Amino acid sequence: MSAPWVLRDADIEELARLASFLALVLKPGDVIALNGELGAGKTTFARALTGAVLEDTALEIPSPTFALVQTYDGGRLPLAHIDCYRMEGAEEVREIGFHAALEEGAAVIEWAGRFPEILPEDHLEIAFRDGAHDDVRDLTLTGHGKWGERLARLEGMVAFCDASPWARARPVFLQGDASTRAYARLHLGDETAILMDAPALSDGPPIRGGKSYSARVHLAEDVKPFVAVANALGQAGLSAPRILAHDMSEGFLLIEDLGNRVFAAERGDDPPLEELYEAATDVLAALRGHPPEGGLPLPGGGTHTLPRFDAGALQSEADLLLDWFYPAVHGRAAPATVRETFHTAFGALFEALKGQDEDWVLRDYHSPNLLWLPEREGLARVGVIDFQDAVRGHAAYDLVSLLQDARRDIPASLEGRLLLHYCGAREKRDSEFDGQAFSAAYATLGAQRNTKILGIFARLAKRDAKHGYLAHIPRVSAYLERNLEHSALGRLREWFDTSLPAAARVKPLDI
């Protein structure tokens, strides 16, 4: 149990704002236990929390005093609102479906102190008491079990926002990505900003050579790379989010809100798909004229140096296919001989990339991380986010990330036109640009990236129970087939034909 968080003289607006922040971090299995005398504010807070989870603060939310429990399924997770005031015992709480509610959702319980035996070891307790006058309350929040650390993080998040110009803003949950980062949109009048919650990550267990996976593939472990890269891209004239406030030691950022028009959600008719993807291709060609500095400056001093996306990092990513996807298809681990021939085939391709066309690699330059900003002009029409893992490597990597988008179908004809469009733009800037070498690198890095993605999607399903990603596997496998058609990838093609042919890569996985 961590030190309690005490709020003095909170008015109804502050109660609602605290409930909105708490709604951001709720997850299935959470229990919020509310205690205090009649009229202390428990129901007011529970209603505010429910409205925040449902993202409808104007919704009429009845008290469960007589119904005992009210359930809500319309928000980002199911929520049960339980009132123990009229209950006779703990068994009655169980009979109304308390434990079943926690399997997929969370519960907020008024008068939870009457039956403490029903509470799991990990829960958040909020005690309400009268404040200095009738319209305010004192709150004491206590995190039990694992909620201790989570409460400390929540308190830090609120303190960070309170110290910024967005102190009175109301947060609304934003769906994040497959990472551990979390996001919220802050509303202050007609203005909005994005709150990023990105606690520093530990290295994790070593996998090879005494290094963890994140260290081998150069994944960002704090927010400093995001800040440094965002500022550098902005100086290059691109629409990366401006940093509005930061606490880099704690991992909190307030950044410019670039809106909701992510490429992944655009239908492709207005504007046409080709216009979207050509604009994003132009950004990459133009970025080639702004090579990354040796050390990207950080606010307040210091620099961030982009790591090199070397053969070791590329191979470690590709190995995810062997570690997760191969066993899901075959029901057994990949034999040593299969691994050896896999490494030999990819190793020769990675060796051929050394010293070629080294530049920015933003790493995840694809539809979930690109936004359409038609009110801006030129290159600035494409908003770019999620680049904290940027490295220095071959320029073809980001282009293949864009044109072989794992989350939406990019026709081969459109991919081919835009690849030629990019090469033409590069040739205008650089008479020594080698289109044939770039084409081979594009196929190599396309094969590497799609191989990695197959492994990641299998891992997300197997380890994290995120089965929705499996729907993208046929598309990713089809992109891989396009890459394997290149003559430079003959040995790698032989490996896939023998060990993971196309027919095996699209069948339902045993996960």
Provide the descriptors you would attach to this structure in a database record.
seven-stranded mixed beta sheet, 511 residues, alpha+beta, five-stranded antiparallel beta sheet, 16 helices, single chain, 2 domains
Describe the overall structure.
The chain is an alpha+beta fold and 511 residues long. It has two domains: 5-162, P-loop containing nucleotide triphosphate hydrolases (Rossmann fold, 3-Layer(aba) Sandwich); 196-505, Alpha-Beta Complex (Aminoglycoside 3'-phosphotransferase, Chain: A, domain 2). The protein has 16 helices and 20 strands. The strands form six sheets. Strands 1-7-6-2-5-4-3 form a seven-stranded mixed sheet, with helices on both faces. A five-stranded antiparallel sheet has the order 8-9-10-14-13, sandwiched between helices. Strands 11-12 form a two-stranded antiparallel sheet. The chain is globular, with a radius of gyration of 26 Å.
Secondary structure elements and pairings:
Blueprint: E1 5-10, H1 12-25, E2 31-35, H2 42-54, E3 69-72, E4 79-83, H3 90-95, H4 98-104, E5 106-110, E6 123-130, E7 137-144, H5 147-162, E8 170-174, E9 182-188, E10 191-197, E11 206-208, E12 211-212, H6 213-217, H7 224-235, E13 243-247, E14 252-256, H8 273-287, E15 296-297, E16 303-304, H9 311-330, H10 336-353, E17 358-361, E18 370-372, E19 382-384, E20 391-394, H11 396-403, H12 412-429, H13 435-464, H14 473-484, H15 490-499, H16 502-505
Parallel strand pairs: 2-5, 2-6, 4-5
Antiparallel strand pairs: 1-7, 3-4, 6-7, 8-9, 9-10, 10-14, 11-12, 13-14, 15-16, 17-20, 18-19
